[in-house]
Design brief:
Length: about 120
């Protein structure tokens, strides 16, 4: 499984997105940064948590979709006219709330001070 890229900000101002466990050499000043300095348990724990959040919202989408399909089959094709309402509620209320919660969690994640090699 691939993890998210880590933002490395060099002291000279250069920014690069580096995969976990890899080294990066700043083209401006020549400093070398190693993302393996980040504790792997913390990093992979965060990746696991973010994956679980995505899986949770996908599972909810499947439950809502299957529930709506079952309701439509039981009540006839007229209920498919409600599909835009269900989709609208999903896109206007559920997803923005989920995104806000996920962004808030991402902002509260720890930051690490890497030392150049």
């Amino acid at each position: 499984m691939r993890g998210a890229r880590i933002t490395v900000r060099c002291d000279c101002g250069e920014i690069q997105y580096v995969p976990y466990g890899e080294r990066w050499e700043c083209p401006k000043c020549g400093r070398r940064w190693n993302t393996a300095q980040i504790p792997s348990e913390e990093y992979w724990g965060i990746m696991r948590e973010m994956r679980q959040e995505r899986l949770r919202i996908m599972a909810l989408a499947i439950v809502v979709g299957v529930g709506f399909a079952a309701f439509a089959i039981a009540n006839g094709p007229r209920t498919f006219a409600l599909a835009p309402v269900v989709l609208g509620v999903w896109l206007l209320f559920v997803m923005p709330r989920w995104r806000r919660r996920l962004r808030a969690r991402a902002r509260s994640l720890p930051t690490w001070k890497l030392k150049p090699e």
